Amino acid sequence: MLQITNLSNTVAEKPILNGLSLSINAGEVHAIMGPNGAGKSTLAYTLGGRPGYEVTGGSVLFNPVRHPRESGGPVAASELDSRVRGNDEAENRDDGGMIDLLALAPHERAAAGLFLGFQYPVEIPGVSNLQFLRESLNSQRRLRGEEPLSGAEFIRLAKEKAALLGLDMEMLKRPVNVGFSGGEKKRAEMVQMGILDPKLAILDETDSGLDIDALKVCGAGINAIMRKSDKAVLLITHYQRLLDYVKPDFVHVLSGGRIVKSGGPELALELEREGYAEVAA
Amino acid sequence: MTALALPTRREEDWRYSDVAAVASVWPVPAPERIVLGADEVRAHALLQDADESAVIVRDYVIEVAAGARLDFHLLNIGGRLGRVTFDVRLGKAAHFALHAALIGGGEQTLEVVTTVTHAEPDATSEQMIRAIMGGKATGNVLGQIAVAKGAQGTDASQSVKAMLLSRTATVNAKPELEIFADDVQCAHGCAVGELDKQALFYMASRGMDPATAQTLLLRAFVAGVFDGIADEAERERFEAAALAKLEGLA
């Protein structure tokens, strides 16, 4: 689903990622752990396409969304917007429909099925969560050649996903993240993820700022929304504790802008016990 | 100075204006007079959406007598030059409120020039002005508040906020206070900024296309300007015109 090869980048002309490679298949949960300054958030922002994160080398291939239509069949590649599809030769390629993620604008990456969970969700005064999410979802749908959701359909979807995360619908009527506590912001992020229903979620320190109860709720939300055979998750975290609730299939250690060690879930426990310096050495 | 003399940029309230455009329509019509008698309550609204080759100069001379109240709503979006000026004189315990939005693109020059004179004690005034300029447009907001000697208990406020959508757009905001009384509250604030880049990326990361994201942020920026229009159909007309103009800038 996601294939990162030798990715390097700079932020404000300072090199951060340094030949990072990582493959994620559908149905998998990967965790990336690493010390402060290793490039964890930079990886998330670079994949999301944040301005100022200059890619200087390497490639990122992503398997785009193939949304079923009412007929039950998948959308023909020719019906998808060419930017989300990759390029016009996509049908003739033998790469399994992988597209060049880095060639897409940030909103096109989202339409292709990427979701970025923010460590510090942004406040947008004057724009309600519902308006924000409905415009986002319908922008994605337009780009994929799908009909926009009606107001009623959208509200039904929002109610369902808010209930899943135990977030009061009243909160969704308020401006995006304004006046939300740390825990509420992260819960709202998970509601956003539920509504947008991505293929790949990259969650940057979703566990930071959460108390144990909120951590459980968010962990359960991630499992309910993303633990599916056609989806994948990349968790970025400092600590083992989120991994108690969202069990990773693979754990990677990021240090100095590249993956220095990969293993199974036991690697997270080893890191917790011995520290990054010991394990990454 | 005769009333018919073409203004020049040497005059303070024309300093940033498009005087070449004004020359093409000079002399402009005499000011419109709005006179409120004692304790009268009235609302006015002006939607200035002339086509973009027009040169519009609308001058208002307003007198609000003791205890009276005037609420003025303005959406100024039309014309190569769209200039609306207010010369307001407030009697004892009178109230004047101006809620205005200026939204310009291309090479438009849009202006609001106010002179609010608190001539008698206990009058209140409130001005809320929001300007959004894209392209090579220029927005000018000149706001003078004059408090006469003896106009104790004056409470005047002026809030000007502007958003620039391009490097080539300009906003000139000039508050001016002239106070000759001592028991007076005059609050004024002015800020010129640009769209929040973090918010734009956050919206894009959720799949929102850049034009929709910009329009949503700008709608939020001018939200509230027309809330006070009591007539619902009128309010919707102003909001729809503002939105259409914003969408044209995206």
Report the radius of gyration of chain B as a whole number of Å.
18 Å
Structural class of the helix and strand makeup of chain B?
alpha/beta
**Beta fraction of the residues of chain A?**
25-35%
Mean pLDDT of chain B: 95
- Count of strand segments of chain A: 12
Order of helices and strands of chain A: EEEHEHEHEEHHHEHEHEEEHH
Rg of chain A, Å, rounded: 19 Å
**How much of the polypeptide of chain B forms β-strand, as a percent range?**
over 45%
Concise summary:
Chain A has 281 residues and is α/β, with parallel strands linked by helices. Chain A is 35% helix and 26% strand.
Question: What is this structure's SSE topology?
Answer:
The complex is a heterodimer of chains A (281) and B (250).
Chain A: E1 2-11, E2 14-24, E3 29-33, H1 40-48, E4 53-62, H2 82-85, E5 99-100, H3 106-112, E6 114-117, E7 124-128, H4 129-143, H5 151-164, H6 169-173, E8 175-176, H7 182-196, E9 200-204, H8 212-226, E10 232-237, E11 250-255, E12 258-263, H9 266-274, H10 276-280
Parallel strand pairs in A: 3-10, 3-11, 6-9, 9-10
Antiparallel strand pairs in A: 1-2, 1-4, 4-5, 7-8, 11-12
Helix pairs in contact in A: 3-4, 5-7, 7-8
Chain B: H1 19-23, E1 32-36, E2 41-48, E3 55-64, E4 69-76, E5 81-90, E6 95-104, E7 109-118, E8 124-133, E9 138-147, E10 154-164, E11 170-179, E12 184-194, H2 197-205, H3 210-222, H4 232-249
Parallel strand pairs in B: 1-3, 2-4, 3-5, 4-6, 5-7, 6-8, 7-9, 8-10, 9-11, 10-12
Helix pairs in contact in B: 3-4
Main attributes?
heterodimer, A: 281 residues, alpha/beta, six-stranded mixed β-sheet, four-stranded antiparallel β-sheet, B: 250 residues, six-stranded parallel β-sheet, 4 helices, 12 strands, 45% strand, globular
